[in-house]
Design brief:
This protein has one domain: Beta Polymerase, domain 2 (2-Layer Sandwich). 44% of the residues lie in helices and 14% in strands. It contains 10 helices and 7 strands. A hairpin with a 2-residue loop joins strand 6 and strand 7. Helix 1 packs across helix 3. The longest helix is centred in the C-terminal third of the chain and has 19 residues.
Length: 215
């Protein structure tokens, strides 16, 4: 995932007035859990107008579906139901040659009440855009209360050791506290660096960047 690509993506969606929520690994990161992710998972409000606007916005920055699906096809509820029933389709994959490290997956269903979730979504700024992420209860992350409670670090004097961090649970709480405090730009940059490291470790010709078609 590349910060420049993600920034361009959310700006295009914002400019087109698309109603969407970011789900998947990136949403998990936005809430404070460090998790490596390569793609951007989006849940659209599946009204025909919103779908057409989303497809058009993606096209303006070079994204196209990996399978021959048009915006009109995707806007047809009966067609989406057929894909789910006959092909087990969960998302439609989008690809862009100019943004190869940032593929986009769009869910073929609204897995929750979109308006309700949109209202309680976590919003993080990225430049002039407020990016909305699926809420913690909807993401169904285990032990999510640890993120919400804050976990202030106890201080027992200048330079003193906080012994609460010398346990697995204590270290995890501190990692969550620090990660949740990062800006969205810092989170996406961290994902970019992790992908770069994974590619270097994989060696020449074995990049971890891959194309996934879920149909």
């Amino acid at each position: 995932m590349k910060l420049g690509s993600f920034d361009l993506l959310v700006q295009a969606l914002e400019k087109a007035g698309v109603r969407y929520l970011v789900a998947g690994g990136l949403a998990v990161n936005a809430h404070g859990y460090l998790r490596f992710t390569r793609d951007v998972d989006l849940v659209l409000q599946l009204s025909p107008e919103n779908i057409l606007a989303a497809f058009a916005a993606l096209k303006t920055i070079g994204y196209r579906p990996l399978v021959p699906v048009t915006a009109a096809d995707f806007a047809n509820p009966a067609q989406r139901e057929q894909w789910i029933r006959d092909k087990g389709m969960t998302v439609l994959n989008f690809w862009c040659d100019q943004h190869r490290d940032t593929p986009v997956d769009i869910f073929v269903t609204e897995p929750f009440d979109f308006d309700q979730e949109y209202g309680r979504a976590l919003a993080k700024p990225l430049g002039p855009v407020a990016v909305r992420f699926v809420s913690i209860p909807t993401l169904k992350i285990d032990s999510t209360s640890s993120i919400c409670e804050g976990f202030p670090i106890r201080q027992s004097g200048e330079g003193a050791i906080d012994w609460s961090l010398c346990t697995w649970a204590g270290a995890e709480r501190e990692q969550l506290r620090r990660w949740a405090a990062l800006s969205l730009e810092e989170i996406v940059r961290a994902q970019e660096e992790m992908q770069s490291l994974a590619d270097r470790l994989a060696g020449p010709g074995n990049s971890t960047t891959e194309t996934r078609i879920r149909v």
